[in-house]
Write a structure and sequence with these properties.
The chain is an alpha/beta fold. The protein has 13 helices and 14 strands. The two termini are about 20 Å apart.
Length: about 325
């Protein structure tokens, strides 16, 4: 396998799809050559605790704790704490496992002592034996808010409480104009030898990262190979509401629609093999196209896709 010769691979991720590819990358690259920057626009307060769903999904995935059936949460976790909270009159529409609660309790405690979200995440991941850096996109709060036909909803209200059923009219990333990239994210942007946008929801997972001032411009002007993996395969999202949101916002629900979203910040879009017929149309948008299997069902699939993406980056590097 051919890798980018030297330097850091910066992965931008959110959700289960992003965590899958990040796991594959972590199986190939040593910790000093991979930085995984994770969306925090989904963060929310539940039961007085700071919950970071995408950071947790990434953490549980890389630590081997994740539930393989759902892709999120801890394998074998119970919901006894949540059930007791419900008996005590709490609103419990957001599922939190009993062991999962420990993560949120510890995070909230450390944040209350004055540590930044980056510092807290570094400590929590180290305690779970993760060597590869998992980095919040910002230490300042950024919250994804959706304008829908059912009113203004937070990301979790829309996705979990309302099961992504309301029609999305627009979305905003509240707090983004006043936020900064976390220190490790800023350093990784400067040092990156390749940038990989994982197969995450372009609007809910990647756009909040790009909304932080300076980030999109830094990627747009970056000289490193910039590769994105389409989360849309065969005209539908591999999982989650990406396809529905794209349709409601007037985007083409296809890898071509993804290419248009990433135009200017992506040199090559990875299309699944079943979307090979879209390669020419993607190239016509000014984005290169690479066709390969992208569905990740097993850990072997995740590693193989990571290998192919890194080989693509290495080829692009040689051609520069």
């Amino acid at each position: 396998m051919t890798l980018p010769a030297t330097g850091l691979v910066l992965a931008l991720a959110g959700g289960v799809g992003g965590a899958k590819l990040a796991l594959g990358l972590s199986r190939i690259l040593p910790p000093h050559r991979l930085a995984i920057v994770v969306n925090t626009g989904d963060d929310e307060q539940f039961h007085g605790l700071h919950v970071s769903p995408d950071l947790d999904t990434m953490t549980y995935t890389l630590s081997g704790l994740y539930n393989p059936e759902t892709g999120w949460g801890i394998d074998g976790d119970s919901f006894e704490t949540l059930q007791m909270l419900n008996r005590l009159g709490a609103d419990t529409w957001f599922n939190l496992g009993s062991r999962d609660f420990a993560m949120h309790i510890r995070r909230t405690d450390l944040l209350s002592q004055g540590s930044s979200l980056s510092e807290v995440t570094s400590q929590l991941t180290a305690n779970l034996g993760i060597e590869h850096p998992i980095i919040p996109m910002s230490d300042q709060p950024v919250r994804t808010v959706l304008d829908t036909d059912a009113g203004t909803l937070s990301m979790q209200e829309y996705f979990v409480k309302r099961r992504a059923e309301p029609v999305v009219r627009s979305m905003d990333y509240v707090g983004a104009p006043d936020a900064q990239p976390s220190p490790s994210f800023a350093a990784a942007l400067d040092a990156a030898a390749a940038i990989v946008i994982c197969p995450s929801n372009p609007f809910l997972s990647v756009a909040p990262i790009l909304a932080i001032p300076g980030v999109r411009d830094a990627i747009a002007s970056h000289r490193a190979p910039r590769i994105a993996v389409s989360p849309i395969v065969g005209g539908a999202a591999v999982r989650g509401p990406a396809g529905k949101i794209m349709q409601e916002l007037g985007a083409d629900v296809s890898a071509l629609g993804v290419a248009r979203e990433y135009r200017g910040i992506c040199d090559a879009l990875v299309l699944d093999s079943q979307d090979a017929d879209l390669a020419d149309a993607v190239c016509a948008e000014g984005v290169g196209a690479a066709v390969m299997p992208t569905i990740m069902q097993s850990d072997e699939d995740k590693v193989q896709l990571a290998e192919r993406v890194l080989a693509l980056a290495a080829d692009m590097e040689k051609q520069r």
